[in-house]
């Protein structure tokens, strides 16, 4: 799964508001980071730092930077909305227990054996080879042809992938399917761990490619990743696997679309190797989408009413994008700005949001559900009518006159990029 941006941020005058998660983000003054020094207080940490500086004068510059960090509060953005927990009635946990064998037969088949999986190294210069430097130079030659706005989107996608610990945590919040021990033998837990292991290659590959490209400010990017993982996310799935698997179905398709589009653009810019990298990641996302949508399809079969209500609930709340709390220490609107560039380049757009929803409605045959309760019928009507409503809003937003605007992105050394 993982990741992708919400193209529709209400604060942004350029984009329609329908996909805005009803929440705000604040930078909390509550959290303080004592950096890597495990002292009881900032004061004792500073005394400790002075001792280090005396003993190891060569490290002074680095230590000074760390001291700066100690003085400044660590202020991750935090979600400001009511956090609902455990909304699935406890008796429904039995549904997921009874689906253990089903998951073994139908879900785990979508994992690839490790020996048959691609690895990041298959697409990168071989460090042990004599031709390593030449291979790196070739990579950098090709990367020179790509514009800054493309790199902004690729970096945002990579950062989103790199916040993988958050997504594994999210899956392990779900009642009835969580990995209870960290090495649980249930099919659900096996899936979650192996899925995470597959996803882990995405961030690794993009990160190493971007490092070698020499086009981006790796330190700023690494800071953004640290902030993002520290911030976490609440996709409002309420420990409820119905909501959780609808969310992951949506997200896997969103990432499939996004990586597919960065592949297409790389090809248009003449970088076939990068196109292959992004296309290979997109293929993984597609396989994950197949798996997650299959779970929800099964839930529709067993409990159509509960599942259509969950689908409508998730769509009313809007699908919050996994990296929406991203921050680089400088730009308070980093996610909105990144989303605006992705929208402008056609990598992930408001139209994609509507298309994904329409795809899922069709995939799960929501229009054909029968025998629903009154509430279920209302939910069915709501989700089936939503894609055209979103499209109308989007067209109206597109029709408004847009002001040309550009902002500096720290990821590309504060160069200006059009939104
Ligand atoms: Fe994925
Ligand atoms: Fe991924």
TrEMBL record:
Pathway: Lipid metabolism; fatty acid metabolism
Organism encoding this protein: Cannabis sativa
GO BP annotations listed: defense response; fatty acid biosynthetic process
Family: Belongs to the fatty acid desaturase type 2 family.
Main location: plastid
Cofactor binding annotation: Binds 2 Fe(2+) ions per subunit.
One protein family per Pfam: FA_desaturase_2
Lineage, opening ranks: Eukaryota, Viridiplantae, Streptophyta, Embryophyta, Tracheophyta
InterPro entries for the chain: FADS-2_CS, Fatty_acid_desaturase-2, Ferritin-like_SF, RNR-like
Protein's name according to its UniProt entry: Acyl-[acyl-carrier-protein] desaturase
EC number: 1.14.19.-
